[in-house]
Write a structure and sequence with these properties.
By secondary structure, this protein is α/β, with parallel strands linked by helices. Among the domains are: 86-132; 137-300. The chain is built from eight helices and five strands; from the N terminus they run H-H-E-E-E-H-H-E-H-H-E-H-H. Strands 1-2-3-4-5 form a five-stranded mixed sheet. Strand 2 (173-180) and strand 3 (186-193) form a beta hairpin. The protein is elongated, with a radius of gyration of 67 Å. It comes from Baileyella intestinalis. The chain crosses the membrane at residues 6-25. One of its GO terms (biological process) is DNA recombination. Pfam families: RmuC.
């Protein structure tokens, strides 16, 4: 048993050795195959990597080329856009600048023109100040303006110039409006122009400087001057019934008239001195009212004449009516005579011609149209 076991063990050992040898041979064969396979696979991988690298290089190169071309095209388009924008901006800028310069030139011309006009106005103001600084010139200015207003609204026979309104007085008022009095007499309404230029100019200067105390002082001085002038007008020119019981003081500037109104002098002057203050506008309104009164008086004066004229027309119309009635009777008589003549005589002629034969109308016209021989019927 022991010997069989040893033999069996030997056999097993030999078999194991043989199996090991076979395994080693197989392993060596597989190792060579694996080496060959891995070598082939590695070569294939290397080739694939090389191909992929080449493809990647080609693609990258193509991308670079496309990107370069795209960049070039973009640059060209951007350059074109920039040039277009530059051209448009340049044109727009040139147009804007041209318009701006034209506008600036126009404004400068207007400024120069305005400066010239202001210089002329300044010269005119200076001349006006020189004129107004002269008392006599100021008086003439008011008289001229007042005469202009009077001549525009009234007729020449409705006012007199440089009139002594008080009987026996040497004081003459500049203008006197002629109002109808009792009978054929005339009642004068004195109108005198006053212009306290120095006082008014001082008041305007005080307004310009904003000096309240000076404004109050000049206002009081102006009120005193106007009161003095009103008293002078009352004393020199008013004497009812030769004149009206009030006079008009004309102030040639609306600003001066407004200052008098603001000072509350209107009622005081009317009550104390019987003098009414009027500026250019109020003077025109007052004269228009007087003109309406003149027209009413003229109508009243001529109403009697108009009534007499209407009576004469009525008398003449009655005579004319009687003549018309007589003429109508004669016309009716003539119509009656004509009717009798046409009726009776026509019937008699028809009876006389009953036995006469009628001929054709054309033959009758031809016979009647024949010329009568010369000498026949003489």
């Amino acid at each position: 048993m022991t010997g069989m076991g040893a033999i069996l063990i030997g056999i097993i050992s030999v078999a194991a050795l043989v199996l090991s040898a076979l395994v080693l041979v197989r392993i060596h064969s597989y190792s060579e195959k694996l080496d060959t396979y891995f070598s082939t696979y590695g070569r294939m991988i290397s080739d694939a990597q090389s191909a992929m690298a080449r493809q990647q290089d080609d693609r990258l190169r193509s991308l670079d080329e496309n990107f370069s071309r795209l960049r070039t095209e973009n640059n060209m388009q951007m350059e074109n856009i920039r040039q277009t924008v530059d051209e448009r901006m340049q044109k727009s800028l040139d147009s804007k600048l041209t318009q701006s310069f034209s506008l600036v030139n126009e404004r400068l011309e207007q400024v120069y023109k305005g400066l010239g006009e202001m210089q002329q106005v300044a010269e005119g103001v200076g001349d006006l100040k020189k004129i107004l600084s002269n008392v006599k010139t100021r008086g003439i200015l008011g008289e001229v303006q007042l005469e202009t207003i009077l001549s525009e609204i009234l007729t020449k026979d409705q006012y007199d110039v440089n009139v002594a309104t008080r009987p026996g007085s040497r004081d003459r008022v500049e203008f006197a409006i002629k109002l109808p009095g009792d009978g054929h007499s005339t009642v004068y309404l004195p109108v005198d122009a006053k212009f306290p230029g120095n006082t008014y100019a001082a008041l305007l200067d005080a307004y310009d400087y904003g000096d309240k105390e000076e404004i109050q002082r000049c206002t009081r001085e102006l009120a005193t001057t106007i009161m003095k002038e009103a008293k002078d007008i009352q004393t020199k020119y008013l004497e009812p019934p030769a004149t009206t019981d009030f006079a008009i003081m004309f102030l040639p500037f609306e600003g001066l008239y407004a200052e008098v109104v603001r000072a509350g002098l209107i009622e005081t002057l009317q009550r104390k001195y019987r003098v009414t203050i009027a500026g250019p506008t109020t003077m025109s309104a007052l004269l228009n009212s007087l003109q309406m009164g003149f027209n009413t008086l003229a109508i009243e004066k001529r109403s009697d004449q108009v009534w007499k004229l209407l009576g004469a027309v009525r008398t003449e119309f009655d005579t004319f009516q009687s003549v018309l009635e007589s003429t109508q009777m004669r016309i009716n008589q003539a119509n009656d005579d004509l009717d009798r003549l046409v009726g009776v005589r026509t019937r008699q002629i028809r009876r006389k011609l009953q036995n006469v034969a009628q001929i054709d109308q054309n033959d009758a016209r031809r016979i009647l149209d024949q010329d009568i021989p010369s000498g026949e019927g003489e």
